[in-house]
Amino acid sequence: MQLTELSGSRHAVGLAHGRAHASRIQRSVAVYDRLFHDFVGLRWQAARREAERFAAMIERGFPAILDEMHGIADGAGLDWQDILTLNCRSEISLTQASGGCSAFALQRHGDQWLAQNWDWRADQLDNVVALKIDLADAPSLVSVGEAGMVAKIGLNAAGIGVCLNAIRSQTCGTGLPIHVALRKMLESPDFDSALRVATHDRVCSPAHFLLASRDGRAGGLEVHPGEPGRLPPRGGIVTHTNHFVEPTVTCQVEDFPRPDSRPRLARLDALLQALPDTTEIGEDALFGVLSDHHGEPQSICRHENLDQPPDERMETLFSVVMNLNERRLTLHHGKPCETTEGLCAVP
What Pfam families does the record tag this protein with (predicted)? Predict the structure, then answer.
């Protein structure tokens, strides 16, 4: 895994992204062709038609990112609609496929940390990319995600970081698609600006965004087309997996979590509360939390579960630990229990 550095205009950033990762982007299209078919019965061309309705929402809420999507398509030798579809994959598929992911924010001894495992189908493992993006009109940022997509998990030079938990729900309304909203947050100069993406622009389908900043502010945002539910830190900690917990959201939006979501959340809470408060916390300790196998196969570090149908088997594909005070992101590609060396990136 290497960090791909992109700079220039929106279109130039997209073009360089597309050229650098053309084969991964094309493989991502093939992966989602299979996934859409497995979960919602759509082949790629039908999914492209489904994605078209989100273009107007992006045009209204974040029009600049459309230039970058066009650039990605040009660089990868694909149609723009293919890149739009990749970036709307959650809105198309998460009615049935919730994935995994365990995320937490932790403040200790003046340091604000963000960390998570990203759990998804193993056929997307080799299509993970780490991007450093430098634009003239926004803070530089680092994002780890899927080739061809404008963002997922990351932080920026202003010390704003965000993590993502998928939520399986049949709700979809008006707002920015999940991954476009994450990118807009990552271009925000401060916590309040990032928060307004969820509260003002809104997010058209349910998810959980874990937002934090280097000044020690943190909170969970259970987003959906309405007002997001907010989860404040308790003892400097915010945790989340793949089900809604905030009452104002659970009374409005129905979700369909897999059985492992609540046990993982309880284990995550227990591990973080057990961390010693008398010593400084480092990356190794937090990757240790993400490597936990208690209760497997319903564990934080997820391995293939042969008891599940093949198309529903989710595994941990990468782990990220971010120190927002130092504006440093460390990535372990693959399962954290099997990875000893990471990629370190600073926006």
Answer: AAT
Q: What is the DSSP string of 108-138?
A: ETTEEEEEEEEEEEGGGGGGEEEEEEE-TTS
Q: Could you tell me if residue 34 is inside a domain? A: no
Tokens of 134: 């430098």
Is 137 contained in some domain?
Answer: yes
Q: How many domains does one find in the chain? A: 1
CA 89 from centroid of its chain's CA atoms:
12
Per-residue pLDDT for 258 more than 90?
Answer: no
Q: Determine how many CB atoms are found less than 10 A away from the CB of residue 52.
A: 12
DSSP for 27-79, please give it. Answer: HHHHHHHHHHHHHH---HHHHHHHHHHHHHHHHHH-THHHHHHHHHHHHHT--
In total, the chain counts a number of residues equal to: 347
Where residue 215 falls among pLDDT bands split at 50, 70, 90?
very high
Q: Kindly report the number of other CB atoms within 10 A of residue 24's CB atom.
A: 18
pLDDT tens digits along 178-188: 999 999 999 99
| Of residues 123, 200, 114, 126, the one with CA closest to residue 164 | 114
**Confidence (pLDDT) at 179:** 98
Report the candidate in 103, 126, 131 with the shortest Cα–Cα distance to residue 116.
Answer: 103
Distance of alpha carbon 333 from alpha carbon 338, whole angstroms: 9
Give the model's pLDDT for residue 340.
Answer: 79
CB 159 within 8 A of CB 211: no
* Predicted structure pTM score: 0.96
Strand partners, 108: 111
Least Cα distance to 252 among 230, 219, 220, 229 occurs for 229
CATH of the domain at 242: 3.60.60.10
Cα 342 from Cα 3, distance rounded (Å): 11
